[in-house]
Amino acid sequence: MLYWLTEFSDGGDFFNLFRYITFRSGGAFFTALVFGFLFGRPLINLLRTKQKHGQPIRDDGPENHLASKAGTPTMGGVLILGALVTASLLWARLDIGYVWMVLFVTVAFGLIGFMDDYKKVTSNSHSGVSGRMRLIAGFAIATVAGIWATWMHPPDLQNQLAIPVVSLLWNIGIFFVPFTMIVIVGAANAVNLTDGLDGLAIMPVMIAAGSLGVIAYAVGRTDFTEYLGINYVPGTGEILVFVSALIGGGLGFLWYNAPPAAVFMGDTGSLALGGALGAVAVATKHEIVLAIIGGLFVVEALSVIIQVGYFKITGNRVFLMAPIHHHFEKKGWAEPQIVIRFWIISLILALVGLATLKVR
């Protein structure tokens, strides 16, 4: 919205700053951060008042969670979404379709998570919206996003899957939209599975988002794409503003979610943020790189798939508990130890993913 102030610029005044994505990205970051600091405590107090028992804790989870996390309110993802949407609408160019696409996916998955959280807290049960309904709604949203992104991509990139490092485009035709659906829904649910310890999911999400923001800015500039030998996708640079708002809102939330958490993001936040990562990857045509940058989320999801599949076949378990962060809890690792080590792994994977921009 503030971009339109450039209409009053003669090219050499303050208003000219709003032409620059980097300036508006900084503005979005600080706007979202201040939003989080201003509204975090009032929101937490409101959630505590409305949620008499806080987020229901699973009986089959780690034993220490029943004592340490009982009574903590959930749905804190509302804070992140509020900061993210407000800052994005204020600082991003609203004539760029990719901005609306990623916002659509983020808010829509946030609504799914909100309904799931609401059902849990009102029924005081860990059973929310059924998994089948969540998947149906998620795939419906991802279908719209996949078609939307394909329509916005340049003709020479439509239905093309970009293979990193080797700079290869693979035309997968009618399978491109189903592929993007899997990417978006998979990312949303992988982040949701990771969100099991105080601060565990939000920092890796911000690290992954920051990396994807760098990629979005690069693929949206012809000079960068020519130098790096990657595909040019006009308009995607504006996604950096969205990503900056996400990071600002995430930091504002982390202030209250650092151990011991005053509020959980809940499915409201985890599904929304995971969907956002998937949507940005689809927009920038870096879906495969997302699997590297978000490798921690992939491992968390795979640990659940392996555990369930192996148990159905053999009746035995591979891990002491899944997702895998609970496995390490069972082995005696302290919660901060797990969280910080997983943050370190996320940072390493993000750097590896960014390296694919140049290693080709």
Describe the structure.
It is built from 14 helices and two strands. It is an all-alpha fold. A two-stranded antiparallel sheet has the order 1-2. The two termini are 38 Å apart.
- Please give the radius of gyration in angstroms: 20 Å
Distance between the termini: 38 Å
Oligomer: single chain
**Order of adjacent strands in the largest pleated sheet:** 1-2
The SSE string, one letter per element, is: HHHHHEEHHHHHHHHH
Number-wise, the strands total: 2
How much of the sequence lies in strands comes to: under 5%
Helix-and-strand structural type: mainly alpha
Largest sheet: 2 strands, antiparallel
Instruction: Tally the helices.
Output: 14
Question: What would the average pLDDT be, to the nearest integer?
Answer: 92
Instruction: Flag low-confidence runs.
Output: none
What proportion of the residues is helical, as a percent range? Answer: 55-70%
Q: Give the overall form.
A: globular
In short:
Helix content is 66%, strand content 2%. It has 360 residues and is mainly alpha-helical. A two-stranded antiparallel ribbon has the order 1-2.
Provide key terms for this protein.
mainly alpha; two-stranded antiparallel ribbon; 2 strands
Topology of helices and strands:
Layout: H1 21-50, H2 63-68, H3 77-91, H4 97-123, H5 131-152, E1 160-163, E2 168-171, H6 176-194, H7 202-219, H8 222-228, H9 239-257, H10 266-284, H11 287-293, H12 295-314, H13 324-330, H14 335-355
Helix pairs in contact: 1-3, 1-9, 3-4, 3-9, 3-10, 4-5, 4-10, 5-6, 6-10, 6-12, 7-9, 7-10, 7-14, 10-11, 11-12, 11-14
